[in-house]
Amino acid sequence: MEILALALAALFAVACVAFVARPFLSEPEAADDRLAALTPADQARLRLVEQRDRALAALKELEFDHRTAKIADADYEQLVGPLRREAAEAMRALDPPRAAPQSAERVDAPA
């Protein structure tokens, strides 16, 4: 009798594990696994983000090499300017245009 109860408990445990594991074992079926194509605006933004990231990474490496004396001061000064300009241009292009700041002085029209 005890063996039968133990066998039923084991069978029930296996059934519970199988029921819980079933979603993890089945392969999901996607209707379409292709990514949506980027619009030209998205492609341009992606290029700017990549340009910015490359320039900032190069600046970081250049700063490290200069601080560890792997690059001479003259070489550092020659290389840092163009990298900063490239990073700044990409960052400027990524920022949305800002409205002109309003003047603190208001000119009232004559009544």
Quick overview:
The protein has 111 residues and is mainly α.
Describe the structure.
The chain has 111 residues and is mostly helical. The chain has helices at residues 2-25, 40-67, 73-94. The longest helix is centred in the middle third of the chain and has 28 residues, at 40-67.
Helices and strands in order:
Layout: H1 2-25, H2 40-67, H3 73-94
Helix pairs in contact: 2-3
Structural class, please? mainly alpha
Rg over alpha carbons: 32 Å
Count all strands and give the number.
0
Q: Whole-Å distance between the termini? A: 106 Å
State the helix count.
3
Low-confidence stretches: none
Main sheet makeup? none
What key attributes describe this structure?
111 residues, elongated, mainly alpha
